[in-house]
Structures are given as C-alpha cells and as structure tokens.
Predict the 3D structure of the following.
Amino acid sequence: MRVRAEAERMDIQEPLAQLETDGYARLGRVLSDEGLAALRERSEDLMLGRVPDPGLFFQMDARTGQYDDTGLGWRGPSLAYRKIERLEKDERFLAWISNPLFERVARARIAGGVVLYRAILFNKGEPGGGAIRWHQDGGTLWGLSQEPELQIWTALDDAPVDGGCLEVIPGTHRQGLARPMGGVIPDERLVAERAEERAVALPVQAGEVVLLHNQLWHRSGPSREGQRRRGFSICYMSATTRCLRKKHTPRVFFPVFAERPGP
C-alpha cells in the first residue's frame, strides 16, 4: 500500500515534536490515490461479505444512536457496521499498517520491537453515524502491563468540521489518565478543564493522516447525513507489553516491526 511519493521521505521531526507537546500532529495527505481506493474497496467488501472473513470482529451501529444498543459480531451484509477490528489479518490493511513511513514514526517513539494493540476501522454511515464522547484510549480497561502512547489515524473519507472529524484538547495527554480505568472522561473533569472552550477540531480530507497520543482527550461528532466517514486507527506499542487480563486467555499481540539487531 503506497505512501504518496512526496510523503515517503518527509521530515518527521516536527510532527513528532508536536505529538510530544500537544498530543497530536498532522502528517498531511500521505495515502496515495491508489491506496485510498484499495482500502475503501476492501472495507466495503468486508462489510458486504464479498471476500472471505479472515477472522475479524464486527460491531453493528445502533439505529438508536446509543452505544449500548450496538450489535456485536457479523450480522450479514451491511454498510452499517460501526467498526471492524483485527484488520492486521487482511493483507491490504496490513500493507498500510506496515508501510515504511509509519515504521519510521513508530521506531522514533517505541524502542525495540513493535506490536499492535489494535487495527480498527471506524465507520459512520450515510444515515449519520453516532457521536463518540470525550475519552482516552488506555487504562485498566485495556488490560496492559504498560500504557501505549502511539496511534496513527488515516482518513478514508473526508471528515469536515460538521461531519465527524476528530476533536482534541491539546496537552491533556500530559495529565495522565482522568480515571484509572480510562475510557470516557468524567463530566466534572470536562468542566474543570473547560473542554468545550479548548476543543480543537481536526477536519481532514481523504488520505490524510493524524498522529495521536493514546491519553489525549479526543472525540468525534456524527457524520453528515448522506455522507460516510471512515477512519482507520492503528495503535502501536512496545513488544515488551503483556496482556494482564484474567477472565480469558491472555492476548498475544501481532508483531509488526521486529527489533533490529545490534551492531
């Protein structure tokens, strides 16, 4: 899956510095036109069952717009799936996950080998997908021995200010977790931090890429009626990270970039 020619050798020092300071940074239009078309096609093929399911996880969007009403698992051909996980099992998405530019970014932030926590497509459908509340991606909910700090988000469709774009509160990643379990930010913290006043919208065009720190407070609104909004989020982390969950067999994380041999 090709990075656009002008982005292949981009200087990543400035966006990495902004990621450290603000918790997010734009890389600009990185995905090639051919790559964008290929990932859009594959996302629809997977939702509509036109290609074999390699072992993915599906979650259907709720007609009510309420998260508790979402349906888990494959429910038949539909473009209304809210998300698809485990996309490292699909060859097209894996090619994008492991592209050389993302490897440079990941190795600049993560020492040694690099594995995936998740590779997930978020889909807001044409009826107008639901809003996602302010949250952090980490905490005891994730069940990890150390907190991951790098997500790379690729827009597969335009996401305008009033059409499902990401919103962030710069610098909130430096405060750590708002609550030990992570996830949704408590209302009292949102008020104390003046979240609505400080929110920064990140509208993007299809093919653009945004870097995010896992603990940055972020959310997204609904998509415009009649327009889809798909975003592909990849969370990279150190290969030394262990799964701490007790109820099920501990996860084994997919290796994406091997540790480089020493001199």
Observations:
- The helical segments are 13-22, 33-47, 91-97, 100-109, 187-192, 195-198.
- The CA atoms of residues 132 and 220 lie 5 Å apart.
